[in-house]
Amino acid sequence: MDSSDLRIFRIVAREGSITQAAARLGFVQSNVTARIKRLESELGTTLFFRHNRGMKLTSTGKILLSYADRIVGLLEEATQALSATLEPIGPLMIGSSQTIASIHLPKLFTSFYKQYPGVILSVTTGDTQTLIKKVLDYDLDGAFISHLCVHPDLQSIPCFNDELVIVAAEGNFDIEEITTRPILVLDMNCIYKEIMEQWMRDKTQTRPHFIVMGTVEAIIGGVEAGLGISLLPKIIIKKNENSRKMHIFALDSLNYNLTTEFIIRRDSFVSSTLSAFLDYIKCVLEIDNSPAIPKNQG
Amino acid sequence: MDSSDLRIFRIVAREGSITQAAARLGFVQSNVTARIKRLESELGTTLFFRHNRGMKLTSTGKILLSYADRIVGLLEEATQALSATLEPIGPLMIGSSQTIASIHLPKLFTSFYKQYPGVILSVTTGDTQTLIKKVLDYDLDGAFISHLCVHPDLQSIPCFNDELVIVAAEGNFDIEEITTRPILVLDMNCIYKEIMEQWMRDKTQTRPHFIVMGTVEAIIGGVEAGLGISLLPKIIIKKNENSRKMHIFALDSLNYNLTTEFIIRRDSFVSSTLSAFLDYIKCVLEIDNSPAIPKNQG
DNA sequence: CCGTTGATATCATTATTTATGATATGAACT
DNA sequence: AGTTCATATCATAAATAATGATATCAACGG
Predict the structure, then answer these.
(1) With an 8 Å Cβ cutoff, is B78 touching chain A?
(2) Is the pLDDT of residue B248 over 90?
(3) Within a domain: residue A290?
(4) Tell me, what CATH number does B188's domain have?
(5) For a Cys-Cys bond, which of A128, A212, B252, B261 suits B156, CB 3.0-4.6 Å?
(6) Which residue numbers delimit the HTH lysR-type domain (chains A, B) (predicted)?
(7) Is residue B294 part of a domain?
(8) Helix, strand, coil content of chain A in percent (nearest 5)
(9) Close Cβ partners of A73 (under 8 Å, ≥ 6 residues apart)
(10) Chain B 101-130, residues with CB within 8 Å of chain A CB atoms
(11) Do residues A90 and A118 make contact, with C-beta atoms less than 8 angstroms apart?
């Protein structure tokens, strides 16, 4: 039994006539007759009494009519409910730390854009405080930040979990030695600087010397050239491991992993583009967190 | 949007994979892909995020899934509910007065039998009291009687409404004269005798003389031969008006019309054959009572 | 008695829709 | 680079639905 059968059945039941129903449906009479007969034989019951003035529902038919009404009603309601949700079109302003922008966003944005080609994406990089302010000021729809954010007007979705490693120039294998080197950071507010500061405090008595490099690429270049050491997501190094001349030290502290979360305003109107983006990142995260490919149901 | 689309959609949503869903449905993967894509384009929304491990519902898709579950559930429930109602097969014992049996039952039984060829119909004629007793004794499933029946164990459905007329031999046009004639009746308990008795009491002072003829055809023959007068449903006379040599007098009393009702036991199990028959006569009555062929809805 | 009307049923044919099979594409993992 | 495991595409085959012509059947009217 199919909903198209029920649609036809309903009209026949209401019109009390196959001919009338066919006219109403824009079908030929024989087709409607055949559909009704097929429905009856499929269900193994008589749905109509045939008489020379048309068709009249049997009690079985009346039962089916009540189901048919509910089913067709739900189908229409569903169509209504879904056609209301329009495909997202328009700008979507996302903020991000530089590291996240270079590690995670290219892939994420590529697949998101493939799904929603009408969305005009733009990424603004900056330090955590700047990004939070822009989100609060409605300059950004949302931002990826690596601090835990507890602002009352913001809500956050944990997104990425990156292993952080200390990197040093090739040949610098002595962890004690490298702690004396300057530390290359993006800016004076970045989370990597804070973590390094904390770590150095625990490890050594000396106050670390920071050099602000401005971009991730500049930091990597500086490390390779032996200017200093730095703290970076492991994945950034692994990506082009072969072409890089760096040594990796595992960071043996509690801040070994860095969680990045996506923040949005708690109150504001959620645009269709942002809504789609939120959906999308939630979906991607579920996939990435899923333990393995579930093999089941033979 | 069709229920078959929803059935496929549901499996894909649950399996999280078109390939798996196709396997489960016994379809080829490309078909499922096409159906889902068509559904999406028909609704104008994206129902799934595609990723390299399969498909994941969007929030729009989740909404549709909840509708799909309800719709498919109702379809299954309907199938269940209807397949339980078996086609009636077996004997159906009906009682009837002779007049009703000859006027109404041939047509009624013909069309009923056409609808339910598995039902083995049988008619028992008799007077009202005998029929009532047989129904109460479970010897008959039901009976057409022309008395108002108020027995506590019986319920009744009004069925036919027949105009009664007094008939006399051709040439007997004087109403005063014919009241002196004997009255031909089926039996001493029949309703026609009672009505005539009442009418004669109002009309004349003389006590009427009744002759029991046993069958309707015998009465008609007796009237034609000038043996006496009788009271019969007008339709019986009209049926073969041309071939009969009788005169019709309208009965000018309150019993002008005779109502026939179908009685059944109130309590007993209603067999599928009886249930179908009840349904059927209710339907036929609605048709006959309907004022005209309803013309509507352009 | 016979033809007309107004309904459903049947059936061969056509049109449309659905399913298939082969192949392309694409991302992740090795 | 190659393998694996997904979805997407496309020409074609198979199944299903719609059509048009015709049959049937009961009621009605002349």
Answers:
(1) yes
(2) no
(3) no
(4) 3.40.190.290
(5) B261
(6) 1-58
(7) no
(8) 45, 20, 30
(9) none
(10) 111, 115-116
(11) yes
